[in-house]
Amino acid sequence: MPTAASARLLRLLSLLQERADAPGAELAARLGVDPRTVRRDIDKLRELGYPVHATPGAAGYRLGPGAKLPPLLLDDEEAVAVAVGLRAAAAGGVSGIAESSLRALAKLRQMLPARVRHRVDTLQSVMDALPSGGPAVDPAVLTAVAAVCRAREQFRFDYADRDGQQAVRRTEPHRLVHTGRLWYVVAWDLDRDDWRTFRVDRLRPRVPTGPRFTPREAPEGGFAGHTARGISTSAYRYRGRFTLRAPIAAAAERIPPTTGVLEEVDEHSCVLHAGSDSLDELALYVALFGFRFEVHEPPELVARVRELAGLLAGAAPQEPLP
Q1: Phi, psi (5° rounding) for residue 18?
Q2: 180-191 pLDDT, tens per residue?
Q3: pTM of the model as a whole
Q4: Exposed (0-12), middle (13-18) or buried (19+): which is 22, by Cβ within 10 Å?
């Protein structure tokens, strides 16, 4: 096969990997050939064992799953992104995945052109990752949760809450959310008739899964926002609401979404929602950010802040009069 034709086949394979359904006319235009040449090239890919299917009802093509992995064709930026992701995954919170990530990274590096390999090696030479610090998630459980989310099937599991109490939960799972330390699944709880956020490391799937369900509209703030509220505020005894006299961008630099939810008021202030099981911890937590602030709720937190303000004011020695 001529070199130009070989290069065109690889380019065609790359285009088929970019999207689920690729119209034949679009493929021809991007390759700079006529539709007949595209059809011949599709036949050659099929002869090589790639399952390229005609799109039902349209003059297009779809690359289906095969018996073996096809070559993954990446541009320079995509290759660097995959390498960085694999390096980060090696220190992530999924048990048993570190070795697999490093093996995949070694294979990827071996196949990279020199110019891209140099960029990846430069990044790796200065990259270090802190361990996630959270409990590791069983990859089989994570995969099972992802599968029921994708299939839109009801999901039953044994769940241990923060106090260690076990219960069977019946849910409609919608989305996995990763905070960088822990994995959560956002699901509609069928017994509580409301959205709930569950830590994946605390659940044990039950089989078989339930019937398919119609996806619900995402909760307020989206799935990530709902998770942030759930783990920073809703799970605690006291839920504080504060106005910070600082732009939301400045506050976001110090307050991660896993410890507080921010809402913009104007260019000079924002609202913070945060929770704790201790009034003192909650008040001091906000004070230590260094922003001027007012506390609005709950009432017992407002009262406790007044008490603490009096204690702190009396702790500073009075300056002697001149």
Answers
A1: -75, -30
A2: 778 899 999 999
A3: 0.64
A4: buried
